[in-house]
Specification:
- Chain B: Belongs to the Rab GDI family.
- Chain B: One of its GO terms (molecular function) is Rab GDP-dissociation inhibitor activity.
- The complex is a heterodimer of chains A (203) and B (488).
- Chain A is of the alpha/beta class.
- Chain A is built from six helices and six strands.
- Chain A is globular and about 55 Å long.
- The two termini of chain A are 32 Å apart.
- The C terminus of chain A is likely disordered.
- Chain B has two domains: 310 residues, FAD/NAD(P)-binding domain (3-Layer(bba) Sandwich), CATH 3.50.50.60; 101 residues, Guanine Nucleotide Dissociation Inhibitor, domain 1, CATH 1.10.405.10.
- Chain B has 15 helices and 22 strands.
- The chains are: A alpha/beta (203), B alpha/beta (488).
- At the A-B interface, helix 2 of A face helix 6, strand 8, helix 11, helix 12 and strand 12 of B.
- The structure holds guanosine-5'-triphosphate and magnesium ion.
- Magnesium ion (MG) binds next to helix 1 of chain A.
């Protein structure tokens, strides 16, 4: 059997406006826009992350408005290998929302290892130092510890701080988790637009 | 989230617009500006307040339409009273299934059932024909990328005393126990004719006009026996009863070709099924709709439908808030008074520890019991699925036995199917009306989909999507699929 690098599905969750799309844009397209446009028209972006000199294909899912009324649905979460939980360091409410997002993910995605599942917590917009911080680093770290020692970074999509690190970290934990799961069998799936099999002689 | 700030007073605004008197004039002004006016009455807006179309219910048909509307640039609000996607076509955990259909709460010990949450049981299970209309819709809308499919391993037909594998190649047919009963040569000739038939090529008609000739006559021409006809009509052309026999043969010939073409693509059987259950399908189309700007609200009970003076729907009210629209598209259960039952379907969900006997250990299969075999008017269907498609925990199988109700005692009608399953760990039975819209929707601007019938494939559901589209837009939905053969 040829070795098959599994595609890793990473999803970005968090309240509206915390910078989920900006983080994704920064990582995949190396760009940033000040202008806020609630996400519409995005689903997932694909990108290879290099881990231990090997490219690992990532499929990164952004939300597309269904989260506005908590209506993402189980299929969106399905099969995720890692989650970035994002809040805005200048917005306390966005931090308080994390617990609900984590809970919703666990209930809907039904991962077999909810306590050790790769969540990486990102306090975004750390460049906005002129504004008073609403969430201290300590407070965030405490919460991460409570939830079983989740990794925590403070990031800035604007100034490109810790963005690559965030994706590498979540990908690394996801790869590790995949290796530990011995009984993991990929079912043989098919492409629905595949060509008809060679016309066989049925005589 | 943002909505919470906007709620000024919890109470409904009455017809005379009784606004609280404590707020200052400026606040009041901004508040009224945000309101939605319906028939001269201002309401708090539901979501953005104004939409082109409102879709109610997140069953497959509604979600496909929602996706198509959003892609066309229309502003869509899509709501469901349930807190999950799928409505009638949702997939549920074992606990949810039993809660829904068993009289009292049952314990589900893990050693017997496995983990309840590893089940994704379709309330209405069906298989997808590999070359059928639903696949064309999935490709047309480019939502296949959100889904993973696996081929269904086996297709069986009941004949004599047990299920027989439906032959997938001519050679298999010649050695099949099923065909032992057949006049092999005639059968071969029949299939060779069907295979070569092309409506546009009179050469291939061999002087038979299939637009006039009935299927009964075509069978007679090849002198096929009753068992063969039963097999061809029900296991290949997928008819649920025998009324097709007296209709023009061309339709049936095309159905047999569809089966054969689907087989050519997927070799083991012509059927596909998505990992994690059919509930994934509506969600894929919902995502398409959301990606194109559709607003989704689950857990949103509808208090009232709002109509204008000419009895046309112009909006909905939920929790006192209102959204307006040019028309509503909905599942029939949202408008019981505008729909009517056209049939009853009995379904029995069974949990098994092993695949049914004579199905060659298939992790997924269909068994068709042709009506005549069970001395009925309509066929009985058995669908079996397992952890292969991630719908059960390892070592457990779910079998669904279903048929169109013909008597006052539906539970007895499915017994024939249950007898094929071997040991059944547990089961639940339900009887549902299949609802259909009473009118086209053009007069009242309420376009209803149809309920899901007893067939075990999506051809009728896809037909409903096309029909609904035509009723809304007055023209046919043109499907463009990136043709597989044009790739690379
Ligand atoms: N200063 C600063 N602004 C940021 C940063 N990240 C995002 N923003 C801004 O915050 C606003 C919201 O960012 P988005 O990335 O659209 O937020 P989102 O979480 O995707 O929002 P939704 O799509 O509505 O859920 C935009 O105006 C961004 O320019 C950051 O690191 N620093
Ligand atoms: Mg966004």
């Amino acid at each position: 059997m040829p070795e098959r690098t599994k595609l890793l599905k990473v999803i970005i969750l968090g309240e509206s406006g915390v910078g989920k799309t900006s983080i994704l844009e920064r990582y995949v397209r190396h760009s940033f826009s000040q202008q806020y446009k609630a996400t519409i028209g995005a689903d997932f972006l694909s990108m290879d992350v290099i881990i231990d000199d090997k490219p690992v294909p990532l499929q990164i899912w952004d939300t597309a408005g269904q989260e506005r009324y908590q209506s993402l649905g189980a299929a969106f979460y399905r099969g995720a290998d890692g989650v970035l939980l994002v809040y805005d360091v200048t917005d306390a409410r966005s931090f308080e929302g994390l617990d609900a997002w984590r809970q919703e993910f666990i209930v809907s995605a039904n991962p077999r290892d909810p306590d050790t599942f790769p969540f990486v917590v990102l306090g975004n917009k750390i460049d906005l130092i002129s504004r008073p911080r609403a969430v201290s680093q300590k407070k965030a770290q405490q919460w991460c510890l409570q939830k079983g020692g989740l990794t925590h970074f403070e990031t800035s999509a604007a100034d490109n701080i810790n963005i690559d690190l965030a994706f590498e970290t979540v990908a690394r934990s996801a790869v590790k988790r995949g290796e530990e799961e011995e009984e993991f069998i990929l079912p043989e799936t098919v492409e629905i637009n595949r060509k008809p099999a060679e016309e066989q002689c049925n005589c | 989230m943002m909505e919470e700030d906007e709620i000024v007073d919890g109470g409904d605004l009455g017809a005379d617009g009784a606004v609280g008197d404590n707020s200052n004039a400026m606040d009041e002004l901004t508040e009224t500006m945000k309101k939605v006016n319906v028939n001269g009455v201002p309401y708090e807006p539901l979501a953005d307040g104004e939409y082109d179309a409102i879709v109610l219910g997140t069953g497959l048909t509604e979600c496909v339409i929602s996706g198509i509307l959003s892609v066309a640039g229309l502003k869509v609000l899509h709501a469901d009273k349930n807190e999950y996607y799928g409505g009638q076509s949702a997939s549920v955990s074992l606990e949810q299934l039993f809660d829904k259909f068993k009289e009292s709460k049952v314990e589900l010990p893990k050693d017997v059932y496995g983990s309840s949450r590893d089940y994704n049981i379709d309330l209405i299970p069906k298989f997808i024909i590999g070359n059928g209309d639903l696949v064309r819709l999935l490709l047309h809308c480019d939502v296949a990328k959100y889904l993973e499919f696996r081929v269904v391993e086996g297709s069986f037909v009941y004949s004599g005393s047990r299920p027989h594998k439906v032959p997938v190649t001519a050679r298999e047919a010649m050695t099949s126990g099923l065909l032992g009963l057949w006049e092999k040569n005639r059968c071969r000739q029949f299939f060779s004719y069907v295979n070569g038939y092309n409506p546009d090529d009179p050469e291939a008609h061999e002087k038979k006009d299939l637009k006039k000739m009935t299927m009964r006559e075509l069978f007679k021409y090849y002198a096929l026996q009753a068992e063969t006809i039963e097999f061809v009509g029900h296991a290949l052309a997928l008819y649920t009863d025998d009324t097709y026999l007296d209709k023009p043969a061309e339709v049936t010939v095309k159905k047999i070709q569809l089966y054969a073409n689907s087989l050519l693509r997927f070799t083991k059987s012509p059927y596909l099924y998505p990992l994690y259950g059919l509930g994934e399908l509506p969600q894929a189309f919902a995502r398409l709709s959301a990606v194109h700007g559709g607003t989704f609200m689950l857990n949103t009970p509808i208090d009232e439908i709002l109509y204008n003076g000419s009895e046309q729907a112009i909006g909905i009210k939920s929790d006192g808030k209102v959204a307006t629209c040019k028309y509503i598209v909905a599942a029939p259960e949202y408008f019981r008074e505008k729909s009517m039952p056209v049939a009853k379907v009995v379904r029995c969900y069974c949990i098994l520890a092993e695949p049914p006997p004579h199905t060659r250990e298939s992790g997924s299969c269909q068994i068709v019991i042709p009506a005549a075999q069970a001395k009925r008017q309509t066929d009985i269907y058995v669908l079996v699925l397992s952890a292969d498609h991630k719908v059960t925990p390892g070592g457990r199988y779910v079998a669904l036995v279903s048929t169109t109700v013909e008597t006052d005692n539906p539970a007895v009608e499915i017994q024939f199917g249950l007898n094929l399953l071997g040991h059944i760990i547990d089961k639940v039975v339900t009887v549902d009306d299949v609802l259909a819209p009473r009118s086209s929707g053009n007069d009242d601007k309420v376009f209803l989909s149809r309920g899901y019938d007893a067939t075990t494939h999506f051809q009728t559901t896809s037909a409903d999507v096309f029909d609904l589209y035509k009723r809304i837009f007055g023209q046919n939905l043109e499907i463009q699929t990136k043709n597989a053969s044009t790739e690379e």
